[in-house]
Amino acid sequence: MLNRTRNSHTARPAQPVAAPRRRPGARVVPPTAPGAPRVGGGVHALVRGDDNARLFDYEQRVKAAFDAIVPALRRVSALQHEEDFERQAQAIARERLGFELPAWILADAWVDQLDMRRLYAWCVFETYLRFSDDFFSADPLGWADEGEFQAFLQECGFHILDISPCADGRLAHVIRYVLRLPYRTVRRKSYAGALFDIEDSLEKWGETELLRFREGTPNTADAPTRYLKAVVYHYSSSAPDTEGCAAHGSDAVRAAEAGRERLLAFQQAVENSYCCGASIDLLLIGLDTDTDAIRLHLPSAEGGIEPGAWVDAAQLYDETRGLHARDAGERIDARLREAAPEAPSGMLRLLARLLENNLSQIEYVQRHHGGRYPDIGHAERFIGAGKGFEEVQLRNLTYFAYLDTVEEAAPDLDVGVKIFSRLNVGHGLPIPVVVRFDYHGKVPAARERAVEHCRRVAGALAARYPALAADGLLHTLQLVRDIDHEQGVGGRVEVLDCSVREPAQEAH
Amino acid sequence: MLNRTRNSHTARPAQPVAAPRRRPGARVVPPTAPGAPRVGGGVHALVRGDDNARLFDYEQRVKAAFDAIVPALRRVSALQHEEDFERQAQAIARERLGFELPAWILADAWVDQLDMRRLYAWCVFETYLRFSDDFFSADPLGWADEGEFQAFLQECGFHILDISPCADGRLAHVIRYVLRLPYRTVRRKSYAGALFDIEDSLEKWGETELLRFREGTPNTADAPTRYLKAVVYHYSSSAPDTEGCAAHGSDAVRAAEAGRERLLAFQQAVENSYCCGASIDLLLIGLDTDTDAIRLHLPSAEGGIEPGAWVDAAQLYDETRGLHARDAGERIDARLREAAPEAPSGMLRLLARLLENNLSQIEYVQRHHGGRYPDIGHAERFIGAGKGFEEVQLRNLTYFAYLDTVEEAAPDLDVGVKIFSRLNVGHGLPIPVVVRFDYHGKVPAARERAVEHCRRVAGALAARYPALAADGLLHTLQLVRDIDHEQGVGGRVEVLDCSVREPAQEAH
């Protein structure tokens, strides 16, 4: 076991995310940007204003905590050669960040100068840990009635909704914000370019069927429901040639086509691997990462996807604004029926729900982000590498690299390192990488294997980027989490190790 | 696609393994070694002499093909500066190895000297490919009635036998030779120290149950049969302190205890992960790699394993030799009943079958290998890395490193490289590594992913052992195989690439 000393990431009390006071110069998004369409509260009858307010408060609170780090450290830096530097620095940190800085980093500042790279990485990790702990203990994005959505899904003819968005940080909020779905009920597994792993999905399909057969969860295997696999690709309406999906060369048509192909391949894999009419249903979703408006590609009568036909939520938003709730809902239903007259009625019901949900997010972006995010490009705060990160449901917070090994995920990691070379290294700041492996605590020694996994990946990361690691421009925090521990709420992450450690500890 | 040119591993006709003529000095095992107990054909009534003859012919044929390489190349080497060297060399190769050598390697010999490392690696790969092709086309170890064993297994109360032996090359023949089981019916997955992966086994358990539920294969889920997981650890009766299992420090007690712990952990993982009384049965087997005699640890009444109690096949062989078949069988049954009076009768029936089968192997080693293998230590001919190698059912032919990535399997690979550093590098010969990934051809693009996988692992190998690779002391052959192609027989391996290539090809 690691030493659990004060001012180390291996020892920390549970505390909510600090909401630091705003400072001039800090990146704070104005409620409505100048020139953007101004929309009053709840103008659209189908928009849930209360949900929007709660979601914005959370987004604002978490991002402000991360964005307070640089200004606070700038201030600390300016004081580093003053005599009561340590006292002043801690006062600033407490006030602006809500926590104290590691005394051992501050204590050495007088000898040479403050090791700002270490300090920055430490603050990002500390802020991440507070955010993560808050998520698993206070459940800020929880759902009052998750059973309602599961029941609705089954009424529509599906027993599971398995979504693979692109791993781009600008899609990390797709479940809870963009689609307004309960994140514990929907499966999310992100991949670069939304090009999900077919073998992994086949395995999930098998697991799902077995639970239906053995345990009747979520329904029994004889119920005529299907496995619904969805892909979310993305594009940028403001800067289509540069801010779209990097994995598809910012080409929305290519991104959609690749998603469709992968979905069809998975469907064929299920059909060829299992007998007795095994199959799945498919859903292809496009997301404009500037506005969070979705487009739903329409199902064909044969269970395929019409590549060139979709219903656009932004258009529906404009078309139904000012209507009464009931009329707006009927208009959405009518548009879907016109566009896909042969689609099964259950699928159309689900699509209508997704479109209606997305109207709230369209208004959210209009109201709180000026209709278009100011950060239409990458602005992630850290890289998340490994398996887990259920708590990351916010846009542009995390660059995901879902991985088992650096060896297999090297291309994805290289993209992430390239992004952060511009965002951080170019300004002299290190790349913070959270290495995380979740495990099933009810499986004997699963924790030990997750720990081993974590250490191996952290080592392989340092080996892949030796120059960055040697220059203190790559820092890692190693975590595991027991996902069998009080499903969802309760099981906090466990810190194993951190590359920012006291030199004395390093000697051991 | 690769060029499929003559004299390259990317082009080869299907041919049976050559049976080179014996030469003085080649490693050939005499029918009975001097001083070993001499046993006449079929002295033990339960031994199947015909099976033994067939198995020995096959072992002899394959190993002789590999063992002919060094003497043939020595002879070739001695001639390399003669004027009609190429003609003479090809004549020797055809006669002794059954194939021609790559002309482009021979052609350069006059300039400097013959690149013996490349030539050796090329010959090992060519011999391996002929052996593998022969296996998948001629089915030399096939079973007349595989259904009989599956039916017997179910009568004993089990629907699957899933065996994890140690990955040591001295156990590679455990299914077909030591236990005399049909290799297509029994699952084999080897791990260093027999420490199998619990998550992988859980997945297999789920897959097996799903097939029973959905397809009634091998029986329906309501049949009261169980999943039987077996571990085979090993030890050396001649040199217990040095030639036992390296992963357990050549300590038989530790090896047995570790196997037992892993089995119990898997059982607990199934019980904790699934409801409704899900569980498995366990079997712990020890193997004396000098004599191929097994010991079966006895099941306890509670479904566990008695750590210190076993029945020894070598002892039973001596005890029942000279008895009539029926009496010998009854003696075995009686010994088992005495040793484990509370074990379920189905389990005892299976154990009796395994013991009886092993008597044939004990006599096989006595008759053909002098009662104790002359190569009690490592003497593998190549490293097999990746997933597949169903065709390797022979002792001391292959050091297995079952792996997805070099990153995860580095410790196992390091052991393999250490073994071959002694066997080959110490004599100036390279380490031949066959990198292989099998795939399900019915899953779309699975072949492309296997190809990608193969290339990635071959690259990672070269990166892990840069000095060996640079000195031409590490050579790789990359293969994939479609396991959905005519189950078992028929689907040959496909050669993707080989580190021994014509320089002209390398330039592309």
Automatic annotation (TrEMBL), chains A, B:
Carboxysome Shell Carbonic Anhydrase catalytic domain boundaries: 149-378
Record-annotated Carboxysome Shell Carbonic Anhydrase N-terminal domain positions: 44-136
Domain Carboxysome Shell Carbonic Anhydrase C-terminal as annotated: residue spans: 379-487
Catalytic activity: hydrogencarbonate + H(+) = CO2 + H2O
Pfam family, one: CsoSCA_C
Biased amino acid composition, Polar residues: 1-10
The EC number(s) this enzyme carries: 4.2.1.1
CC terms in the record's Gene Ontology section: carboxysome
Enzyme class: lyase
Main location: other
Entry's Gene Ontology BP terms: carbon fixation
Gene Ontology MF terms: carbonate dehydratase activity; metal ion binding
UniProt region (Disordered), positions on chain: 1-34
Signal peptide (UniProt feature, chain positions): none
Record's subcellular location: Carboxysome
Cofactors, names only: Zn(2+)
Record family assignment: Belongs to the beta-class carbonic anhydrase family. CsoSCA subfamily.
Protein name as catalogued: Carboxysome shell carbonic anhydrase
Source organism of this protein record: Thiohalobacter thiocyanaticus
